[in-house]
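Good morning N.,

You mentioned wanting to compare the apo and holo forms, so I went ahead and generated the holo version with calcium ion. This is what I fed in:
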Amino acid sequence: MLQRTMLLLVVFATIALLHAGNIALVQQNRGGVELKWTLQNVQIQTAGEYTVVEFDGGCGLYAVGRANLPSQQTFVEIPLDSTPLIRVTPVVVEKVMVQKPVVPAQEPEIDTVGAEKILRRDLIIDREFYQSRTMFPGNVAEVAYQGIMRGRNLVLLRINPIQYIPQTGELFIYKECTINVDFIGGIRSIAETDTAMDPIASALVLNYAPGKVTREDGSVDYLIITVSALSQIADEFAAWKSQKGLVTKVEIVANNPSVGTMKELIRKYYPGLKYVLILADHPQIALPLTAGRHPLGTERCQQLGLPDGTVPSDLYYACLEGTDYYPDIYIGRVPANTVPEAQILIGKIIDYQSKPVRGDWLKRFLLCGEFQYQSAATNTAERLFCETAFTIWNSLKTKYEFPSKTIGAGSSGLGHAEYFFRKSVDENDPTKPGTYRAKIRDAEEPVVKCKMPAEWYPNIVSDATAKANTLAYWRDGVFLVQHRDHGGETGWGKPSVNATDVANLSNGKMQPILFSVNCLTGAMDYSKDCFVEAALKNPNGGAASAIGSTRVSYSWWNDRLCDGFYTCLYGTKIYDCLDKDVIIPDKPPLSRKLGIVLNFGKMYLARNYPSNPWGTSYDYTEIEFYLFHCIGDPEMDIWVGPLTDLDVQINDGQIQVLDQAQRTPITAAQVCIYGENTQIVVQTDEKGQCSIPSGLKGNFTVTITGDQLYPYQQTLEVK
Ligand SMILES: [Ca+2]
Ligand SMILES: [Ca+2]
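and this is what came out, ligand included:
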């Protein structure tokens, strides 16, 4: 029998103090996990006709038309062969009465250029819901989603600590409870997989255990799929990957293979397979349209000039286990139509990885976006674009050089004496979500309760100025381009940099990685080169690889996605998403590999932002998973600063790797000895040393690589 203690406090209040919710792991055994939920306080405010309820780290449920109550989520791993049973034991529950109805969730805003002028959006209210006496959402803890991520059976556990009876205005607030997730029917244990997705699981899974499966020798790490016309370039790329130490295989398919053929081909190599690269543009190898319908629907998609409501996506090929949308491998596409295009695209990727240009361009970070203001308050943000740029700058300002004056704004947004980020509650439109960044909302310095720090104001300039500065800064060399704003197939909203601009950039071999986090700029199936393709196919500049979306994507969701990218690239010790209760263990950088950064961003989004499962088919998180693509090599390390040059000595069967400048040993560098039908991969030890296995004879290539190490390569003759 469970001992149940319930303390029911009745509090009549319309405003309470802040703040935080927290899920903690209490214990785990073979039968399940026990968690403790605590919620210190809840913010309840009246705004216009509505009541807005929030707590730090909480996020609205987005059941469109119904009360947008905050929830919080975490991933719990359960054995592959078990199902979860959730039990909740409440300890402290408080009751609050509210006079005005809790604000109804609306469809989220989209990041498409000009969409506001084209699409009319009526307020959606589910009247039947607001007259109901049924407790909503109904379950204090529930399985929000369940999916398999490469052998890990992940339960997305949602805590709904605020329960609401719409007709009476009663809110029941669960301030403390014990939550058990029992594993029913399983005999296996968790983490029965390899380490390929440990960077993601280690940060996002509450009961994380490292992967413990070792794959068989010879299982393929990296699969390149291409058409026969491009096979020679695929082979050149495979040679580089093999030298680096990945077991790499090229598969040739007939032009425009069926989706089923492609998926079967990939399945042949799973579960050993980690990376897939599709070397061919749409439709030579078509983007699958199997991702279901866009939440906007066919009619509204067509109003925006799109062919229909489909969502073309390579994610379909990465979902190999389960019936879920959690990818099980890292996938990318190099969208070449012809041999010359493939030579440019693959040539840039190999150069980036094998012989990057040294210099200060690796310290220059191009950050740009928009200050989109409210029509009722033109010095206050309507979206989070500018805030997301600020959040990135705030964490990285001491590491890099940033441009100024690259945040574009319309004329009414210019020249104000002070500026504000988006507030948590918009008095002018309480149905629109506010900022989720509690540290911006509450901070005294430098951001005073949503006010931008004064040093940030000068960044806000006209679109023409922002565009000129963005292009000039890019041309002079940057290692990363971060854009968060609106987009269309052939360009950004603000700064209004377009495909022609990036096709003509002359930044030469200083090739950045491009994070184009907006709508449609990665529409590889567009009739011409889309924006991202134009940047990548530029032989004299542009970018080396990118992340971009194939269709219309969502504000707030896209901002969370960016938080995920930077959490992966820099770790929580450096990247602060300014949200007080997105609790991720203190982590160093998790991975710099482009495909891992993308998958991490998506899983981070899934954990921190709910989809919409209440009676509609719209799942905004799912759509974001399908939209965003790695357009380039998923295995490439993103250079995030000047690289460490290596001093390598090879003598008497021993390899010694030192930091050339510091003369200190480099540990955990990957050394690959390749040739004579042999591929040997070893790692340097704490002395920076490793041995060449005895018995080798012939001519080999020695390739030494590692995160932020300048790649080293030499030939080696063993007699
Ligand atoms: Ca899966
Ligand atoms: Ca294309």
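Residues 281-282, 335, 524, 529, 533 surround calcium ion (ligand 2) (CB under 6 Å).

Happy to go through it together on a call whenever suits you.

Best,
F.
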